[in-house]
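## Example pair
The file below holds two records. Each record gives the amino-acid sequence first, followed by its structure token line.
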Amino acid sequence: MVNHRRRESGAVSLFLVIFAMLLITVVTLSFLRTMIADQQQSSVSDLSKSAYDSALAGTEDAKRALIYYRTVCATGDASACALAKQAIDSNTCNAGLSSVVNTSDPTKVVVAQAQSGGDATFNQSYTCVKMKLATSDYVGTLAANTSKIIPLKTTGTFSQVLLQWFRTEDFGTTGTNVNLEATPPQVDGGGTNQNIWPLLAQSSWPATRPPVMRTQMFQYGSSFTLNSFDSNTSGVSNANTLFLYPTGVTGTANATQDSWSFTDRDVRLTPTGTPLGTTCSGKLSGGGYACSAILNFPVPIGNAPGDTTRTAYLRLTALYKTTRFSVSPIGTQFDGVQPSIDSTGRAGDQYRRVESRVDLINVNFPFPEAALDVSGNLCKNFLVTDSSNTIPANQTTCT
């Protein structure tokens, strides 16, 4: 009998085992690397959110400090008011917060809740909060067909205000072209035979067209009487209204800045059926505001010619559409109307910075939106008589 022996080295099996082990190792390491990266990203994201929350905590403490400043100044103590103002306007981090928080550590203010002793382990704090009472502009957002009253309290005198409105964020759609009317397409049927800008139905107003801005000025000088608000003579006035209609060429950028005087058009003197066509830019690819106009204020009644000292307010109403806006007194700054807050928060090794504005007005006396506001119909009774005896004592029905 002959024995046949087969000699097999097993090299192929060995290579297969090694390749499989390498493949499993690579997959395992890749999976571990992905897990570690996700964990690190999650940790950074959590720390970043915590740093943002810390910056917001600094902003809230800054609001408390501003309220304290306003309260101190309301007492009439000029010395205490000056000291509070000096602290608010300090350029040193957290110096303006000494009235509301412990600022013994100039490098940080720890963010922790008194009822939770473990909060400090999160290492959250805000490192630097600065405030400024004087700002170059007042910024805000107006919802469609709503108003805002801006106190024109400034560090110096002024006679002009720059108004800007409508940004790409107000479009409600994508794109950079601003829809504008180039020429007045309608003729006034009321007898004036002048071309007028079209006042469309609310639903017909284009999404990318800036709103019509109703600008109302009311002011007074060193002395005034109530009937002075109904007077407008010789370029002096205490109350006026202008309607600014956005005009221009759609799709064409334009940096033109119109200048209007509040006494140029007053329905009490020159009845008219058309708003003022105000040149706007038809393209906003570089950002900024589409519409810009300089508003010239008249001398207050009772002031000498050229005397621009005044107490003034500007009421803005966005007709048709929501808009962002900016108001800047030319040649001076706002004084405590909308202070700026710059807050930097920290959590671990992550930092976040928040810049914000705060309206510093007396919340106990808000500016009214209207003298009368109703959600339904309004019924009025009119009675003409030559005797007070015929006036009903208690009229409860509308006829």
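Second record, same layout:
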Amino acid sequence: MSTIRSIISLLLLAILPFFPFLAAKAQNYDESKVPSYVLPDALKMVSGKKVRNQKTWETKRRPEILKLFEDNIYGQMPTAYDSVRRMIVSDDGAAMGGKAILKQVLIEIFRNQKSVKINLVLFVPSKAAAPSPVFLLINNRGKDNTDPTRIKKSEFWPAEMLIDSGFAIATFHVDDLAPDNKDTYMNGVLQLYPEQLKMDNGMKAIGAWAWGANRVMDYFEKDKDLDAKKVIIVGHSRGGKASLWAAAQDQRFAACVTNCSGNSGAALARRQFGERISRINTSFPHWFNNNYKKFNDKENLLPVDQHMLIALVAPRPIYATNASKDLWADPKGTFLALKNAESTYALYGLHPDLPASPPGINEPYIIPPIAYHIRDGEHNMTAYDWANFIRFARSF
């Protein structure tokens, strides 16, 4: 009997990486089992000195935290390339029944005689009296969710809603930068930077997607129809991890939306609730750098936690979300990460004043610079979420 049990256990261990929902059953969903933890102080430098003003934050502590995240989680963010080509491959001035201009833009970046191509889909309100503010989605789902023909419409990217509200809406797909596959993720941006693959703190897929968002921002600065000072970067789930990292790295983004991003996104790792670092690194070894694997089941050894990533967005507004049936993404841990980032915003004279405990389901707290909601339902991004993102954008 013991031999049979051993064989079954070995089989389960072998298949868990391929069936994350089975692995999820082994994770903690009981608040009483959350271990005690002490968060690193975002405003205490490695030297022990306390940060008390914007200058010290911006010149010393912020770069220090950014490097800690680069070295231990997300990897480096290379910036050098040889040249870039931007070309509008399609321009339809009568999209959405005349309400929008559709631009399909090819952005091609060259380095060392190789290139990567980003295919950008962009709708701009056709009757805008001034350059339009923009929502940019990092699309980690099927490309049909962001169909430029609008034959298929998805509430994951409700372009018509954004246009009717006076916003431009843009997207690119993660596969252009790094296929979301452990065997092929290097067939994109990392062909330009192969040295990153040899480094323990080298960029991988999440970093590549954020890198792509930064290159799209370069294009926005060239497009006279857009207000590049009013760009909100948006991501869902793994895309929400990337939107946070893009906003932390590139301060040109006016605000960040991270939707249901969970562990290694907006949720605190030290709570060990729902998805954990070890599960991510087992199921998705291509997302984060090699050093991150040192913290499998050792969250308390991390020199950072996700409230510090949110702090890197300051003083710009940030909106994090969850869903009631998505405990895997730790809604409470997400809210607590936001709450623990408030002290950094206070350096700028901003006082988010989030409530002491998470707001109720479908009771969004939308008072910049830090907004939050937990929506009724599953792990997804819906029209309800987008309607609140619009409210958020209009509020600042």
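Notes on the second record: The chain has one domain: 11-394. The first strand starts at residue 83 and ends at 94.
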